[in-house]
Amino acid sequence: MQFNTMTKHYLNKAKICIVGAGPAGFYAAQYLLKHLKDCQVDIIEKLPVPFGLVRFGVAPDHPEVKRVIHTFNKTAMSPRFQFFGNVSLGRDVTLQQLRSWYHAVLLTYGADKDRQLDIPNESEMKVLSAREFVGWYNGLPGAENLQPDLSGDVVTIIGQGNVAIDVARILLRPVDDLKKSDITSYALDVLASSKVKKVYLVGRRGPLQVAFTIKELREMLKLPRVSTIWKCEDFEGVKEVVDTLPRSRKRLVELMLKSLNEQQQIQVENDKKFLPIFLRSPKFLNRREVAFTINKLEQDRALPTNAIEMLKTDLILRSIGYESSCADAGIHFNVKTGCVSNEHGRVVSCKHEHTVDAGLYVAGWLATGPTGVILTTMNNAFMVAKTICDDITIGNLKVDEAKPGVAEWLNTKPVVTWKGWNKIDVEEVKRGQLLGKPREKIVKIEELLTVASL
């Protein structure tokens, strides 16, 4: 009975700070508030607005994916939850400060950079990041200045994940289909005058290894007035092994083979074309051309041959993965993996490689790398939040000392509370209604802060 009393005493006093208001942060908060009945959970976020990749990464023509925001809103309604927007780790507060103000700190600020191609002339030519392009049409503050040039016929996307196929779909989808989405008006204007007719989707491995999902491909294949054209030689030997594949991969490959077969039977001359190409790695850029090394597969590994293929293009978008950054010098960040060093969510100490730093945790892409979908992030966030609960319950994490939290240290800068975010939300919906859209996102930081303070 004495142990149970101590546990209850600890649970009453737990004060936890989550850094990052994306899916990982909100799912962790949801779990903590449910299982630590009297804890206080504060989320700090560098942007004035919450929801991270749900707001800025999910394609505007996928509104159903954004419904998880309803769950996040319920979490934010807890009297034991606080949101502090426009507060950046490493700029406004240090990790050391947060750790002195809270019993536990959970890092969930995600992946904010993209991997480079690292090929000659990449920096000199107009190579855009698919991540930045997505932020541009989704209203990420700062991305409105991207100014993609869509005056040419051909766009080449290097990478074959879901982000790459999202970008291809937005480039090829009829603009009228996007007018009732929450896509930014400035992006809609540019897409309306786009001259893009062909979008290549280039990957270094074969059809059996693609990273996009069947849902994304099926949607591409159904786009009106768009022909999907595969290269027959890319599918040599694929039909013979399709029955040996795991179920989800088998269904995806079967859909590609079905599309290839229909393409051979009926040649539809649409004005736009989606052209996936496999077994190609970018080698160098030369004016309006990309040189690709032709690869061969050996045990699922792409090995370069001596053969080179040139592809003419007007714009290049790289989409070969996201990377996290180290927001504070006190974080044990692994530059090779692009993740915070951790053991099951417990951050490894900077000073002692084989011990964890008590009270410091990491979840989401910052812990695992940019993999999976929102459900994957949810499961990881729940797992790490349970670890925090377990550490408190068994006494590995002491919470009997009173902690002040971040609030009183933020009176010298403009901070957006949840009440302030609700004002932004109402204003965006109001602006959207005038345009026949669900919302028109405000993209300027200064304007977001002004609206939040009204």
From TrEMBL:
Pfam families per the UniProt record, alphabetical: NAD_binding_8 (PF13450)
Cofactor requirement: FAD
Cross-referenced InterPro entries: FAD/NAD-bd_sf (IPR036188), Ferredox_Rdtase (IPR055275), Ferredox_Rdtase_adrenod (IPR021163)
GO MF, one example: oxidoreductase activity
Superkingdom classification of source: Eukaryota
Pathway: Steroid metabolism; cholesterol metabolism
Gene3D superfamilies the record matches: FAD/NAD(P)-binding domain (3.50.50.60), NAD(P)-binding Rossmann-like Domain (3.40.50.720)
The EC number(s) this enzyme carries: 1.18.1.6
Record-listed NADP(+) binding positions: Q160, G161, N162, V163, R204, R205, E216, G372
Listed GO biological process terms: cholesterol metabolic process
UniProt keyword Disulfide bond present: no
Sorted UniProt keywords: Electron transport, FAD, Flavoprotein, Mitochondrion, NADP, Oxidoreductase, Transport
A GO cellular component entry from the record: mitochondrion
Compartment(s) of residence: Mitochondrion
Protein name in UniProt: NADPH:adrenodoxin oxidoreductase, mitochondrial
